[in-house]
Give the backbone structure.
Amino acid sequence: MSYARQMLAAYRHAFRADDEVLAAAIDALTDCAQACIADIDADLGEHAVTEMVRCIRLCLDCADVCIAAAGVASRQTAYDADVTKPLLRACLAICTSCGDECEQHAQMHEHCRVCGEACRRCEQACRDLLETLK
């Protein structure tokens, strides 16, 4: 069981979304941030690093947005839809862009393939959470 699921199970208040969807989104957000950070490091180690600049930039943005979204989604006490929903939509947008870029490098770089998959999973998790938020 993930830590997100354990923490949500220990929570006393009602959630603004299905708890399984919420936990899956938090897990996907943190996984995506980690994959992006690792991909940045791997990109910087490539011989043709100048060809990876766009990928590095998008991964930096994606990691930052995913970390922020995971933090906000994890705090349910004073939930504010006006903050949470736009942040999840921003996460959806950057995961799409980052995933698209990583997929362009996936055949040459395994780390980009893995990062692209994490971005796609996060995209879907954010979409799922947005659909269930009250």
The CA atoms of residues 13 and 77 lie 7 Å apart. Helices lie at 3-10, 19-44, 53-74, 81-105, 110-132. The chain has a mean pLDDT of 92.
